[in-house]
Specification:
Radius of gyration: 19 Å
Number of domains: 2
Strand content: under 5%
Structural class: mainly alpha
Largest sheet: none
Distance between the termini: 47 Å
Low-confidence stretches: 17-36, 168-174
Mean pLDDT: 78
Amino acid sequence: MNNHRRTIMTTAALAGALMLGSATGMAGAWKGHGSAVDLDTRVARMSQHLQLGDEQQQQLRTILEDQQAEHERLRAQTRQQVDALLTDEQRAVREEAMTARMERRLERMSARLDLDEDQQAQVRALMAERRDDPTLTRDEMRGRLATVLNDEQQQRLSALRGDRRHGMRCDGHR
């Protein structure tokens, strides 16, 4: 009976943590940052906090991967629906805003990672590809970006992402 009770309690805690994690991740997405924590970190943190077994960790990973895929699918669907209702003029305004945002992101990335002109052009092309094809996942884009950056830049980017996960902005403030 104790094992059965422990299983029920663990399942309930896992479900609650997933709901909280989903809400937190979606709150981050609405701020324009997407999920604040990568999949491995989420699995590790929940596994440690809830003392999940190996099988539970694998099940959790599958659930979170499915959630991430669904989020990407919904993002692409929403973009298509919004584009369909806009007039040509509104789409042009939206495109200008998206391009300006992309350029600001590229400027920040270039300054933080010391990108050369060739790397800037490659990153700009990647960002434009993501803008034009919302079905590209964050992981796909990160993989492509890794091919543009040298080892030192990849380490810096990883450190910057780690700071963001822990509530620090890239300028060192909370």
